[in-house]
Design brief:
By secondary structure, this protein is of the alpha/beta class. It contains 13 helices and nine strands. Strand 3 and strand 4 form a beta hairpin. The radius of gyration is 19 Å and the shape is globular. The C terminus is likely disordered.
Length: 273
């Protein structure tokens, strides 16, 4: 890590951290122990929200600015938990409940990341030009944090096509994201994969607040109805992130925090559905 090397090599006496500590308050302790950290996305959400008069917030750390709400977490114990979907919401939930539980993450693709991999290819994330490297490091370290806590990964395993994979679990967490409506998925992914989304004319459209909000909230639909039927009698079902309601990354990750750390109270507070 750059900061650690700078101190060890005598290039600096100390390192000052800003946004990094909002994303990961335990940064120093985790680096000392050699543990994966929760990476800052450099999206300036914390700064922009404070400048706008709101309390501090963070896309990847929903507890930032709301620490008292999470002061007495209600994490399940000795449960077999299946998380369907290895996007940021699914990985966040898995990392938060891993201690004291047996957690398995099922992902139909060959790697973790989900639709977040496409967000990294968009010209704008929040209100900042997207840096794909930040997204890659964030997902890689989040998956590493899960593995360090004993979370098992079943990559290339489509739970929808083989529901028997979910047998024996106490809780099924649906973190399968949202699906594009109107057949837009192929076209939108093509624009992002080819890099055309960053072309000057098209980038202007993708950066338009009204178009971005339409793509996030109106053009997509939560996938939960397709996966609820996979649960068997006696299994608890929790739906988080875009699977519950299509929206933005901050909302999706916040719902994972609420579900993992607040338990049943999260539903009462309308933090996930």
């Amino acid at each position: 890590m750059t900061a650690e090397r700078a101190v060890i090599q005598g290039k600096a006496d100390f390192i000052a951290l800003g946004r990094t500590l909002i994303a990961e308050p335990q940064w120093v302790n985790k680096v000392r122990r050699g543990e994966p950290i929760r990476r800052c996305l450099s999206c300036n959400t914390c700064i922009n929200e404070m400048r706008g008069g709101a309390r501090i917030g963070c896309v990847v750390n929903a507890a930032a600015g709301r620490e008292t709400s999470f002061a007495t977490p209600q994490i399940p114990q000795e449960q077999r938990i299946a998380v369907i979907g290895a996007g940021p919401a699914g990985l966040t939930y898995a990392s938060l409940v891993a201690d004291g539980n047996h957690v398995t993450v099922f992902e139909k693709e060959a790697e973790a990341g989900g639709a977040f991999k496409y967000a990294a290819k968009a010209p704008l994330f929040q209100e900042v030009d997207t840096q794909a490297r930040s997204f890659t490091r964030y997902i890689d370290d989040l998956a590493a944090a899960c593995r360090a806590k004993g979370v098992q990964f079943r990559l290339g395993a489509d739970a929808a096509a083989a529901s028997a994979l979910l047998a024996g679990f106490d809780t099924i967490v649906i973190a399968t994201g949202a699906h594009y409506r109107f057949g837009l998925r192929v076209f939108a992914n093509w624009l992002l994969d080819t890099g055309l989304a960053r072309a000057p004319g098209i980038a202007r459209l993708f950066k338009s607040p009204s178009i971005r909000n339409w793509l996030y909230y109106k053009a997509r639909r939560g996938s939960a109805p397709l996966f609820r039927q996979l649960a068997r009698p006696g299994q608890r079902v929790i739906v988080i992130g875009d699977a519950a309601r299509a929206g933005k990354s901050k909302e999706a990750i916040a719902s994972a925090f609420a579900a993992a750390l607040l338990g049943a109270n999260a539903e009462d507070r309308g933090m996930y559905s």
